[in-house]
């Protein structure tokens, strides 16, 4: 098992904790991580772009003028895609961009993402933030004591103190164990876990 120091809000070591080898020491495959991250990103696309084909455009289907003898190019109805206000050829229509990834693969990718943080020594554990009130300044003081930035924080605390104190800081994001995902882990350079979340993460992925 990997051993990681547990820090307090002052940035001092208070104890050590053991991380499960099954979860935090998984061989990393970039192809698996790429597949899961891509599925997360495309799922954000709404897929609502739409335009009218010539069959949907309102207008007469009458032939504009006779086929021969006018000196003009042959023309059909006013709804032709070649005319102003006509339909669109091969235009977008509402669709889903979702890519289905098996549950086992998503679970494996999450283990790999966590293992990459252990491998890079960019995973940190804190016992508690000890924020009494909603104050961005107090939260920034904790980050300065830990000397961390570009940070993803995982906390299961129910109170909104931590979330509201951190929301004005652009390179910091706070999520719960249930919301832990591959994209966010890889997006941020550092990962900070509140000590109480480790058992929940291991229970979810074991």
In short:
The protein is α/β, with parallel strands linked by helices and 206 residues long.
List the helices and strands and how they pair.
Blueprint: E1 2-7, E2 13-19, H1 21-24, H2 30-43, H3 103-119, E3 123-126, H4 136-146, E4 151-154, H5 161-166, E5 172-175, H6 182-187, E6 190-194, H7 197-205
Parallel strand pairs: 1-3, 3-6, 4-5, 4-6
Antiparallel strand pairs: 1-2
Your description of this structure?
This protein has seven helices and six strands. It is of the alpha/beta class and 206 residues long. Helix content is 33%, strand content 15%. It has a domain at 2-40 and 101-205: 3-Layer(aba) Sandwich (Ribosomal Protein L4, Chain: A), CATH 3.40.1370. Strands 2-1-3-6-4-5 form a six-stranded mixed beta sheet.
- The appropriate CATH architecture of the domain at 2-40 and 101-205 is 3-Layer(aba) Sandwich
Radius of gyration: 27 Å
Mean pLDDT: 93
Q: Main beta sheet: strand number and arrangement?
A: 6 strands, mixed
Number of helices: 7
Order of helices and strands: EEHHHEHEHEHEH
Query: What would you call the structural class?
Result: alpha/beta
General form? elongated
Strand content: 5-15%
Number of strands: 6
Distance, first to last CA: 14 Å
